[in-house]
Amino acid sequence: MSKKCLGCGIELQDENISKEGYTTNIENDICMRCFRLKNYGDYQVVTKSNEEYENILKEIGKTKDLVMYVTDILNIEEDLTSIKNFISNNLILVINKKDVIPRSVKDNKIINYFKEKYPFFNDVIVISSTKNYNIDYLLKRVKYYQTTKTVYVVGHTNAGKSTLINKIIKNYSQNTQELTISPLPSTTLNTVTIEIDDYLTLVDTPGLVDNTSLSNYVDTETLKKINPRKEIKPKTYQLKKGSSIIIGDIFRLDYVEGEKNSFTVYVSNDLKIKRVVQARHKDLYNLCKTTYDLQFNKDLVIKGLGFIKITGRGKIDIYLDQKIKTFLRDNLI
Fold first, then answer.
1. What predicted TM-score, i.e. pTM, was given to this entire model?
2. Residues 275, 184: contact at Cβ < 8 Å?
């Protein structure tokens, strides 16, 4: 019988060092990749196709098991209804990483936003895995909606699925298993089953890779910089026509038409933001240009980076790597 890595779920093998799942001893519990990542922070890139992930979702859809859909509050997907293409199971939307959003933002505001937009979720719960926030309540709701002992944990890469499961193990289980975690994409490579107690077994799944997210196109140091590690301090700029906001060497926004307008930037505190006069600064004009005509109270979301809350109407030009996607939504905060 094949043995799987307890960290990432890949099948272990001791024959090919260049192949996934390699270990020096087949009796080991984790693969060499997980060992080096846990002990040395040495990340080995593995490319997994979204087709593999979608096949896992289809198999989950054949069950009657409860599913937790975990998403990162700073990088919530443009359309969460896509999950319904694969599964019709009971679904709990788990909005993770509340600790990076200002404390003044109340949970109920976020919960009501998503309940109204996505009524098919049985429940919406705001948590922070790293800060152990609302985990008790999450487990109570899981027990309420459970149909079997098994509960699946799904979502995009870097949403914090494995971190959440590790926190549940630590808080509620005698199990000593620990999933491999990393700020880098595709850390979990296959399903990993963890028995929490006699009544609950969690199944971690590989994250869906968003090929339009900034996190897939930056080096390790930049990735650490764009991933907030503590509460964001939003920066608000009152812009007039002809003003710009530049975020690091990544993103530029030009305000090209409209009355004086408010732009509040929600990105990692480690990123440098500057306001400049368009005519005097030509930084990042070599990047791909996109134009948006804004209506009132919209967020501009930059996948993998964060979002900008805009209150008034106007017209903006943004400059960003053409591989990175942006979109507008109603104000979240």
1. 0.84
2. no
Say which residue the tokens 């943004």 belong to: 318
127 touches 163 (CB < 8 A): no
Residue 177 main-chain phi, psi, to 5 deg: -65, 145
pLDDT at 301 over 60: yes
Is residue 332 a contact partner of residue 113, using CB atoms and an 8 Å limit? yes
C-alpha 15/C-alpha 299 separation (Å) is 50
C-alpha dist (Å) from residue 2 to 9, 202, 242: 11, 20, 63
Q: Flag the least confident range among 2-11, 91-100, 200-209, 247-256.
A: 2-11
Helix, strand, or coil here: 277? strand
Is the pLDDT at 314 greater than 80? The verdict is yes
DSSP 30-75: S-HHHHHHHHH--PPP----HHHHHHHHHHHHTS--EEEEEEETTS
Task: Establish how many alpha carbons lie within 13 A of residue 43's alpha carbon, considering only the half-sphere containing its beta carbon.
Answer: 17
Chain centroid to Cα 248, Å, comes to: 21
CA-CA distance, 53 to 4, in Å (whole number)?
17
Phi, psi (degrees; rounded to nearest 5) at 330: -65, 150
Q: What is the largest CA-CA distance in the chain?
A: 68
Lowest mean pLDDT, pick from 11-25, 268-282, 298-312: 11-25
